Amino acid sequence: MSLVQKKLAASFLLVTALCTAVAVLVPRLQPDLYWGTVLVVSLDLVIGLGGAWLVSWLVVRRLKQLAAAASVISRGDLTRIVAVDGSDETAELARAFSTMLANLLTVLQEVRATAEQVHDSALALSRTSHDVGTATEGIADASRAIARGADAQAEDVARTSALTRELAGSVDRVAASAEAVRDAATAAASRGADGALAARAASDGMVAVARAVDASASAVEGFQERAGEIGKIVAFIASLAEQTHLLAINATIEAARAGDDARGFAVVAEEVRRLADHVRGFAEQISSLSEEIKEGSQSVARGIRDAAHASGEARSTVERAAASFDGILEATRRTTERAQAITDGAGEQRRAARQVDEALERIVRIARENARGTEETSRATGGQTASIQRLAGSAHELARTADTLKGLLSTFKLRE
Amino acid sequence: MDLLTFQLDGTRYALPLDAVAEVLVAPAVRRVPAGPPGVLGLAEACGRIVAVLDLAELLGRSAPPGAPRHLVRFAPPHDRSALAVGQPLGTGTGTPGAGHVVIAGVPHVLLDTAELLKRASGG
Fold first, then answer.
1. Distance separating alpha carbons of residues B90 and B5, to the nearest angstrom
2. pTM of structure
């Protein structure tokens, strides 16, 4: 038997006992039957109604509470607490209702929390997708820039390679020129050696010429001294002739003063004067010739001195020429060595330029491959950007769905 | 007429031989301050001091450059005077003309000793 049945049975038994007690006691207290009967009926009626109210209160009271709680819950308020006391079926019902309410509240709270998390996550995912999309677009832009840069790099490297080949050609030309310089320097060295030998022979010849010129100069100087002595002698003869001339004139004067007896003496004096004139004339001619010889010898002496000076200068010039030939020989030797060094260096530069050209060709190949790979990466990044945009759209849609769920959950009043 | 001939500055002159004492190489001539224009100075000749006459100045011609080379000392009574000449040429015989004489076909300027001395003394 259930507890309600037990309560109903107890209530029935209590009502029955009270009615029986009223029926027993009232006749003793009210002897009048009528009034006694009226009183018993009245009291039994009161006891029956009271028992009925008590039974109904016991059964209906919790149901009303549950109905009120259900009415509140139906309006979404899940904060209502259903009092649970007793142990009858209504109490069990209330307890089950309360448990159901608590479970529903827990579920709804979890759903709301989950919805908020989903909303937050969707928003974060949307923002992240947007950021990733932006970053991916940046990566795509950077990839395109890298691709363009790689193309430009490939073009630059190609031009550099062309320049390197031109450089190699220039190096070849330099090497050819250096070889020509080396050959020319070798020929110049040979001719310089011949020139040095010839210059030294000329220098020796100039020494002999200088000695001969010195001897000639000494001879001319001696001749000049002799000519000077001749001049002195001639001057003395001229002076003697002058004095003789005057003596003859004076003798003629004295003879004229002596008269006819001295006529013969005057003739002799005149002859003496004429001889003196002849001597003076010859002396003047000799003096003139001597002066001419002296002037000529001086001219010859000047010529010899000039020749000696010129010979000395020529010898110095020839010696300088010999020294220059030595310098030329040394310079041509160094030129030959340096030309050889240039030729060797040009060969090394040619090999290095070839290696650089090969390396540049590899760089061009790699740069073009990089450009192609980067373009593919750019295209892939574009596809990734579209996927990320779709993902962002889905996240946005999920956020809207979470918003909708939160809106639905907001119709429920839950405890915080 | 016997004459002594000499040359001065390209001109031939002639002096009468009886007016000439001697011809000598010109010694050093010392000039006399404020002397007559026709007198070069004083010189020593054969132990005597003689007055040296400047022929170019006396004839009004330009004097040749340099010192005189020879002197012609006059015969007495003018033996205290001498005439500065260039190169004595010799002696000769010629017929005097109007201020000139031709000796061996060559014309010479004939000099008058008295006239020269007169000019030298300012007369």
1. 5
2. 0.44
